Amino acid sequence: MKKIVILGGGGFIGGHLGKRLKKEGYHVRICDIKKHEYFQHSEICDEFIVGDLTDPSVVKLVIEDGVDEVYQLAADMGGALYIFTGQHDADVMHNSATINLNVARECVLKKVGKVFYSSSACMYPEHNQLDPDNPNCEESSAYPANPDSEYGWEKLFSERLFLSYNRNYNLDVRIARFHNIFGPQGTWEGGKEKSPAAMCRKVAEENNNGNIEVWGNGKQTRSFLYIDECIEAVLRLMDSDFKYPVNIGSEEMVSINELAQMAIDISQKELSIMNLEGEEFYAKYGFKCPLGVKGRNSHNKLYKEKVGWEVSQPLIIGMQKTYQWVSEQVLKRKEAISI
């Protein structure tokens, strides 16, 4: 039986990955600083170790001799409110880099068969993402480097870290640059949630004939990939022999206003969008509106060439599933408060 270790398996993507691999009959060990909020451990793994992966002794405990595959998803991260205000930059860089330094070294020492590292589209240069209608996120555009956040710089550093371990120690690595992965059983409130979950929550919380806030003018563009397709893409990449960074995302680009309207349409509520920016935003929240780059969209040509698979599910299907789940969470919270 293949032995799998998922680092960060208490998070959104890691939990879904664990569920898929356990269902396929592998022995799955997860380590995270916290338990999964929505999955039972028996659903996603055979062993769940609660531990801080910035501690080398924890990594030594989790990654044993004989492990076939390690999926390194653990990071200090979140949505725009967490990443782009600048208030968490030191923790984001220190914690995530420390985890990756620990993991890369231990995987070599324990002779792990194959290692997956989850990078991010946030590592792409800001100057290639100023036009919301024509962003350039082709893998070859990564240099000269100029990410728009410290989170992106750390991801770029860690890509190079794992590639250097491949060159110097023959560590068999796979690296994916994720583009906004979303779906049920993930963070949907509290400041670390991504845009799809945030829009679904805002719509679910609002009464008919009300309005929802969208930060900025809403014309900034993104693409979003549903979690099931993300997991499929990761596993196919692991089965391939391609060892360099590659995008995993959807090429269906939408504006943030369009994403918000999609959530409204799914809910069948009569709601309007209120764009909040500039001094009005600052007066309400006390800091500059965190927007990220003006445009970002996955470029999937390299993945298709090297792995031979492509994303097929339209955004609306994933948003329907996500809205249903988020609205259930909102209802549960209201019921708990009323008790």
UniProtKB/TrEMBL annotation:
Residues 4-249 form the NAD-dependent epimerase/dehydratase domain. It comes from the Bacteria. SUPFAM superfamilies: NAD(P)-binding Rossmann-fold domains (SSF51735). Keywords: NAD. InterPro entries: Epimerase_deHydtase, NAD(P)-bd_dom_sf. This is NAD-dependent epimerase/dehydratase family protein.
